[in-house]
Amino acid sequence: MQPVNLFDLATQQAKWLSVRQTTVASNVANINTPGYRALEVEPFENVLNGSRVALKSTNPNHLQFGATNASFAVGSTEDPAVLPSENTVKMEDELANAGEVRRSFELNTAIVKAFHRMLMNTSRG
């Protein structure tokens, strides 16, 4: 049996969330570093728009489609407010981003668990 595309997509989002969490942590760690520019990860929606999300066949007689090939980039934030130390990190924004990452991880996990339960229920017959 071939892997279901939803699991691949959830894995890709989990990787993206991991990179975003690391970026937020890096911003917070450098909040007092003079001249540090806050970093942000490309939104996951852009990652999906730039990749082809396709169905995977479970039978050799099905039509063949390509797999998901997504990538993401980290860059400095657009039009930041520069502090006197020339640092662009705002603690309020980073705390909001950290909360958003946590909620997204929880949602991702809940969706995968629900899909797994559904898959297990159908395979048990």
Brief summary:
The chain is mainly alpha-helical and 125 residues long. The protein is 52% helix and 5% strand. α1 (5-29) packs antiparallel against α3.
The strands making up the biggest β-sheet line up spatially as 1-2
Structural class: mainly alpha
Helical content (DSSP H or I, runs of 4+): 40-55%
Largest β-sheet summary? 2 strands, antiparallel
Assembly status: single chain
Shape: elongated
Percentage of residues in DSSP E strands? under 5%
How many alpha or pi helices? Answer: 3
Rg over CA atoms? 19 Å
End-to-end span in angstroms? 16 Å
Tally of separate domains: 1
Q: Poorly predicted ranges (pLDDT <50, ≥5 residues)?
A: 65-70
SSE string, helices as H and strands as E:
HEHEH
Overall mean pLDDT stands at 79
InterPro entries: Flag_bb_rod_N (IPR001444), Flagellar_basal_body_rod_CS (IPR019776)
Domain Flagellar basal body rod protein N-terminal: 18-37
Keywords: Cell projection, Cilium, Flagellum
Main location: other
Protein model, in words:
The chain is mainly α and 125 residues long. It has one domain (4-121). It has 3 helices and 2 strands, in the order αβαβα. Helix 1 packs antiparallel against helix 3 (91-124). The relative contact order is 0.20.
List the helices and strands and how they pair.
Blueprint: H1 5-29, E1 39-41, H2 44-49, E2 74-76, H3 91-124
Antiparallel strand pairs: 1-2
Helix pairs in contact: 1-3
Organism: Nitratireductor aquibiodomus RA22
Family: Belongs to the flagella basal body rod proteins family.
Domain Flagellar basal body rod protein N-terminal: 18-37
